[in-house]
Write a structure and sequence with these properties.
The protein is an all-alpha fold and 375 residues long. It has 2 domains: 216 residues, Citrate Synthase, domain 1 (Orthogonal Bundle), CATH 1.10.580; 97 residues, Orthogonal Bundle (Cytochrome p450-Terp, domain 2). Helices cover 58% and strands 3% of the residues. It is built from 16 helices and 3 strands. A 3-stranded antiparallel sheet has the order 1-2-3. The protein is globular, with a radius of gyration of 22 Å. The mean pLDDT is 94.
């Protein structure tokens, strides 16, 4: 036994040094490479924010155009990737399909085993470019439709919606989706990012680490909160039913999805942007019911429990308003977080030390051996 203080779930334990993001949970602050997430959400795109994480600098117009063009040219899946998706059962869980496809892409990437920084950047670009293609192609295949080829003239977010539906999306829809991806991009050593870094610390390759990150995000205690939040809103159904639902749920000590956070004590800075996007999409669609239900629930939770909503709460109504299937909400989280996972993998590879924490042993000691004929 040791005499150190146990930290369950490694709460508060510093496990790595990183220059990628800064979180102040008490003040409700988040920055990527020193740039406030509010400024990025208002003025930048998802890919511009990825560039900031990977290159530690704001790109010039020419640099950003080149970066976007390079990724747009790599959106198509190799035949092996499409073949894997085509062999999956139609009722496969989308996160499991995504995990399988990314692992398969690692088998055919020409630089799969090269973990130099230059190769990592190229592989990261291919993954960021192809994650939306994987999710859109799988969704269409499971519905008995042919995948839609990527359109290199469309933005990252616009192209995803186009591949999913076969129609050019509205500017409001594109901005809402792009902002959500930006807000999901990076958030310190959360469970999936820590998992990716642990794998990278063994000097495993980019695809292995990202596959591990997807596997960790698949768990409902990390990813999936936006899906559960939307299912909850659908169960509530109307503004008039919110108070009664909350009374019953709190009396039964049920978790109200999309509220509270392990890090933030003030409002999650990402939530305000998604609240605005949810309202804008509701206005455009002429259907404000789910936004209105969300606003009433948000106010009551703050009043009764002192809990702010987190990034997943309004992301649910944003994605639902975009007409996306609920089981694609977490894959979209993964699409956004891929740029962040890749940044952590590269940071780990550049400054590597094997991550190997200890466990506090809680079992018995000095147990006598009993021969098998006397048991």
């Amino acid at each position: 036994m040791t005499d150190h203080v146990e930290k369950k779930g490694l709460a508060g334990v510093v496990a790595a040094e990183s220059a990628l993001s800064f979180i102040d949970g008490e003040a409700g602050r988040l920055s990527y490479r020193g740039y406030d997430v509010n400024a990025l959400a208002r003025h930048a795109s998802y890919l511009e924010s990825v560039y900031v994480l990977w290159y530690d600098a704001l790109p010039s117009a020419m640099e950003l155009a080149a970066f976007e063009g390079t990724l747009a040219a790599q959106r198509s899946l190799p035949p092996e990737g499409l073949a894997v998706l085509g062999e999956l059962p139609a009722d496969s869980v989308p996160m499991a399909a995504l995990r399988t496809a990314v692992s398969a892409l690692g088998q055919v990437d020409p630089e799969a085993e090269d973990i130099s920084h230059e190769a990592d950047l190229r592989k990261a670009g291919r993954l960021v470019a192809r994650m939306p293609t994987i999710v859109a192609a799988f969704d269409r295949l499971r519905r008995g439709l042919e995948p839609v080829e990527p359109d290199g003239e469309l933005s990252h977010a616009a192209n995803f919606l186009y591949m999913l539906r076969g129609e050019i999306p509205t500017d409001t829809a594109v901005r809402a989706l792009d902002t959500s991806l930006l807000l999901y991009l990076e958030h310190g050593l959360n469970a999936s990012t820590f998992t990716a870094r642990v794998v990278a610390s063994t000097l495993a390759d980019m695809h292995s680490a990202i596959t591990a990150g997807i596997a960790a995000l698949k768990g409902p205690l990390h990813g999936g909160a936006n899906e559960k939040a939307m299912e909850m809103l659908l169960e509530i159904g109307s503004v008039e039913a919110v108070a009664g639902y909350l009374d019953r749920a709190l009396a039964e000590k049920q978790k109200i999805m999309g509220f509270g956070h392990r890090v933030y004590r003030a409002e999650d800075p990402r939530a305000a942007h998604l609240r605005q996007m949810s309202e804008a999409l509701s206005r455009e669609a002429g259907e404000a019911r789910w936004f209105d239900v969300s606003r009433v629930l948000e106010d009551l939770m703050l009043e009764r429990k002192g809990l702010h909503c987190n990034v997943d709460f309004y992301c649910a109504t944003v994605y639902y308003s975009l007409g996306l299937p609920i089981d694609l909400f977490t894959p979209l989280f993964a699409i956004g977080r891929t740029g962040g996972w890749a940044a952590h993998v590269m940071e780990q590879h550049m400054h590597n030390r094997l991550i190997r924490p200890r466990a506090e042993y809680t079992g018995e000691l000095d147990r006598p051996w009993v021969p098998i004929d006397r048991r």
